[in-house]
């Protein structure tokens, strides 16, 4: 059948598998907060988003287990109907306070949060403007929306301004601008001090996706707006629980009227089963720790600065990162696969980032750090990068 030709003709992944360098779907047999066990061997995890290291925290694990005992393993339905527990309601109330907004709405994944928020709010005569490095779920939410989509060069607010200005006379009713708070592949932080006034000038609703910021960025971990001292100036904040919150799920936080509307219109909320109780309880326990243990954030920043300085002084190119996301530029795809495998065989688990996520010949190994990484683990990561980097001619 012709419709399946694309499957039969898709040979790229099989070629990499045959070469022995395939880095995807690695089967993990067990884990600690900083290691993954593969083929019976521990690998230091520098490829996760477990920034605060809460996945194995005893209070988090106990909360998840208690919720399973009380509510069972799943909700077997949408929050809209039979799948809403008091834990979901509690989490929304606490998140709204944490982020500093009126209300919050919890979805089953961060991806669905973007589909539901952007896809629902951007109507037929509206337009949404995206940074070119925004996450795929933001792009997909915009594709679902009935309105039009514009894309501006990464961080280029003059480019955004020209588009907003050029669209003035085109009969567009509503405008939305969506950016990542922390960009997931580069690690740089959105320039809210300049973006907020620009959005206000053009009456564009600013949405900040704080997936990679919430929990550790800002004095209390409340995210990018708090980091910039602009907590009450970002109308809608989106977040995920799949990173610092050590769980799965997502949320949007903002004015009560918007949250109320989304609660009754967002299709990815209404037509999909709710977060399992264990996942919600994990988030509540994680939030307790985020509020009570600022030392985790301090340690994460200490590690981040050490790793940035060390990679740079070894001669690696790490780009404009300002956060625990530290991408190491390798270049060509084949070399990146070989580099990944050499690190993996030496006990270091990284994430290869390949086209179409990045341009050809701009492949990188994305590393990211966990508050619980020990100095010995970090030494090993750096020594291994240095050894392989020299062998492969990435550094001299
Ligand atoms: N937004 C951003 C910026 C992300 O990086 C991600 C996941 N990497 C998501 C949304 C999707 O979140 P989730 O994994 O919870 O679906």
Give a description of the structure:
The chain is of the alpha/beta class and 396 residues long. The chain contains 15 helices and 14 strands. It has a 7-stranded mixed beta sheet, with helices on both faces. Strands 1-2-3-12 form a 4-stranded mixed beta sheet. β7, α8 and β8 form a beta-alpha-beta unit. α5 packs parallel to α6 and α13 runs parallel beside α15. The longest helix has 21 residues. The protein is globular and about 55 Å long. The protein starts with a helix and ends in a 5-residue tail after the last helix. The model has no long low-confidence stretch (mean pLDDT 97). The protein binds 4'-deoxy-4'-aminopyridoxal-5'-phosphate (PMP). 4'-deoxy-4'-aminopyridoxal-5'-phosphate binds next to α5.
Topology:
Elements: H1 5-8, H2 12-19, E1 30-31, E2 35-38, E3 41-45, H3 58-71, H4 86-99, E4 103-107, H5 110-121, E5 127-131, H6 136-144, E6 148-152, H7 157-166, E7 175-180, H8 192-201, E8 204-209, H9 224-227, E9 236-240, E10 250-254, H10 256-265, H11 267-270, H12 277-292, H13 294-314, E11 325-331, H14 333-345, E12 348-349, E13 351-353, E14 363-368, H15 375-391
Parallel strand pairs: 3-12, 5-6, 5-7, 7-8, 8-9
Antiparallel strand pairs: 1-2, 2-3, 4-10, 9-10, 11-14, 13-14
Bound molecules: 4'-deoxy-4'-aminopyridoxal-5'-phosphate.
Residues 109-111, 114, 135, 137, 180, 184, 209, 211-212, 240, 242, 250 line the site of 4'-deoxy-4'-aminopyridoxal-5'-phosphate.
């Amino acid at each position: 059948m012709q419709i399946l030709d694309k499957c039969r003709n898709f040979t790229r992944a099989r070629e990499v598998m045959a070469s022995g360098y395939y880095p995807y779907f690695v089967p993990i047999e067990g884990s600690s907060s900083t290691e993954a066990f593969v083929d019976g061997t521990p690998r230091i995890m520098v490829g996760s988003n477990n920034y605060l290291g809460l996945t194995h925290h005893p209070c988090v694990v106990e909360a998840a287990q208690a919720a399973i005992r009380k509510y069972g393993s799943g909700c077997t339905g949408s929050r809209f109907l039979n799948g809403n527990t008091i834990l979901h309601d509690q989490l929304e109330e606490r998140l709204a306070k944490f982020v500093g907004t009126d209300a919050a709405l919890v979805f089953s994944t961060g991806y669905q949060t973007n589909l539901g928020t952007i896809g629902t709010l951007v109507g037929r005569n509206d337009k949404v403007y995206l940074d070119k490095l925004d996450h795929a779920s933001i792009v997909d939410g915009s594709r679902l929306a009935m309105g039009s989509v514009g894309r501006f060069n990464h961080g280029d607010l003059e480019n955004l301004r020209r588009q907003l200005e050029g669209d003035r006379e085109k009969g567009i009713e509503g405008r939305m601008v969506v950016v990542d708070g922390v960009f997931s592949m580069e690690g740089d932080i959105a320039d809210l001090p300049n973006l907020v006034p620009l959005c206000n000038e053009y009456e564009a609703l600013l949405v900040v996706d704080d997936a990679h910021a919430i929990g550790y960025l800002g004095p209390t971990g409340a995210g990018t707006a708090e980091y910039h001292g602009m907590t009450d100036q970002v109308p809608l904040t989106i977040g995920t629980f799949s990173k610092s919150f050590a769980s799965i799920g997502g949320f949007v936080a903002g004015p009560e009227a918007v949250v109320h509307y989304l609660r009754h219109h967002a299709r990815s909320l209404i037509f999909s089963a709710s977060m399992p109780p264990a996942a919600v309880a994990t988030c509540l326990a994680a939030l307790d720790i985020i509020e009570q243990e600022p030392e985790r954030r301090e340690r994460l920043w200490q590690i981040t600065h050490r790793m940035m300085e060390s990679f740079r002084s070894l001669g690696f190119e790490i780009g404009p990162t300002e956060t625990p996301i530290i991408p190491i530029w390798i270049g060509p795809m084949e070399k990146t696969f070989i580099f990944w495998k050499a690190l993996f065989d030496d006990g270091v688990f990284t994430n290869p980032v390949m086209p179409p996520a990045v341009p050809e010949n701009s492949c990188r190994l994305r590393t990211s750090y966990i508050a619980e990484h020990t100095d010995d683990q970090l030494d090993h990561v750096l020594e291994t990068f240095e050894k392989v980097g020299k062998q492969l001619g990435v550094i001299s």
